[in-house]
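Propose amino acids for all 116 sites.
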């Protein structure tokens, strides 16, 4: 095998090794009902234990004001998931900053708007 062929093969092996076990975690819809915020997420990677944090901002009179920062520990199996976060919100417009973490590292994040 030539040196350039060896380097190409080595590069392919390194790429496959580094990408093995990568998790694709995406946030989906968010809903609020009966004092529970439900966050949907899809995990196409390996299951993991972590946490979900939500920063809730009230949108009123063309400004936003932070109301609540809350979070819960979660187990995230492979596939579609729904996480229930207890929180009490009044009718109004809100912006949610959502973070899914594992081992102190952010695995996924998103910003969602809801109206109650």
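Proposal:
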């Amino acid at each position: 095998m030539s040196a350039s062929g060896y380097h190409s093969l080595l590069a392919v092996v390194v790429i496959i090794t580094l990408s093995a076990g990568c998790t694709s975690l995406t946030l989906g819809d968010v809903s609020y009902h009966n004092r529970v915020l439900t966050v949907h997420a899809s995990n196409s990677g390996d299951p993991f234990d972590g946490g979900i944090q939500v920063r809730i901002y009230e949108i009123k009179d063309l400004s936003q004001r932070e109301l609540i920062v809350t979070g819960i520990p979660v187990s995230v199996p492979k596939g579609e998931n729904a996480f229930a976060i207890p929180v009490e919100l009044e009718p109004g417009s809100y912006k949610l900053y959502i973070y899914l973490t594992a081992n102190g590292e952010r695995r996924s994040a998103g910003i969602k708007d809801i109206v109650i």
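Confidence is low (pLDDT under 50) at residues 10-21. DSSP finds one helix and seven strands in the chain.
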